[in-house]
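Dear colleague,

Following up on yesterday's call, I've attached the two folding results inline so they're easy to grep. Please treat them as preliminary; we haven't cross-checked anything against experimental data yet. The first protein's sequence and structure tokens come first.
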Amino acid sequence: MSLPIFHMIPGAPDPVAPFSHAVEVDGWIFVTGQMPFTGTTLDSPYPQGIEAQTNQVLKNLDTVLAGCGLGLEHALSVRIYLTHFDEDYEAMNTAYASHFPLGRRPARTCIGVTGLAKGARIEIDLIARRGEVTMPSSDSV
């Protein structure tokens, strides 16, 4: 096993606690949960509504992945945390699905929680893997 690489990505939101944006080992990239900050500072506003917050979180995750030379297409597993689960689940799914093509969606868990840092309605973390990304054939979707 190689030594881990601790990534701090320029242009990604500042961490809300003492952690790295991502940690990489042997081609696996573990991306810290991202919040819906619209800028890089912790006082950046959140967009209004769960759809906009979902899109912003995925944009922030993509920024972290891009800093590692990857993109959302490299995501293999995603965890989503929602503070208003029943109210936001359906609309979050609609926004989320627009970021991943049918037949190439990561494994996923969605969890209702009582609170998130800085009052966010959503936080998403993920695990990605380096390597060539292939799309499934039309007969496997």
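Below is the second protein, in the same order (sequence, then structure):
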Amino acid sequence: MTTLPSTEEVWQALARIPDPEIPVINVVEMGIVRDVRLEGPKAIISMTPTFSGCPALHLIRAQLEETARSLGFAEVEVKTVLSPPWSTDWITPEAKERLRQYGIAPPRPTRERGALIELEAAPTRCPRCGSFNTSVKNTFGPTLCKAIHVCNDCKEPFESFKTV
């Protein structure tokens, strides 16, 4: 008889699934995987997509299911949870640093004020030279979650992760 993995072992396996759009971070540290519950031979994984219309949503769902099945679970349920909505605050500090090293300015923290979330009013730091002397070139980047900036000091264009 095969022994099924523990919840922690499932989390570790899911952490090996790279984010489809940013391969230097995984879906766990991105904050997409919200919960793992084991009920005998069944794994129940809850996920919150970064955007409800995320084009990689079906791929992420399939990879979560495939990973759990490869661990020996006969039944896998992947639930999409939209409330509370995903927030860039769910990205781990380690993943934010890897974003910066990859050349993407990580999102700034948010702070809640009543029912609204207020973005910190601060310039975006260039991930290459560290300068705050940057400007937005396009609020629409290659994906919904990113914008295009340019550093006025080192003259390099870069993507920044939008704070949501």
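For the second protein, one point worth flagging: The chain has two domains: 7-80, 91-161.

Best wishes,
A.L.
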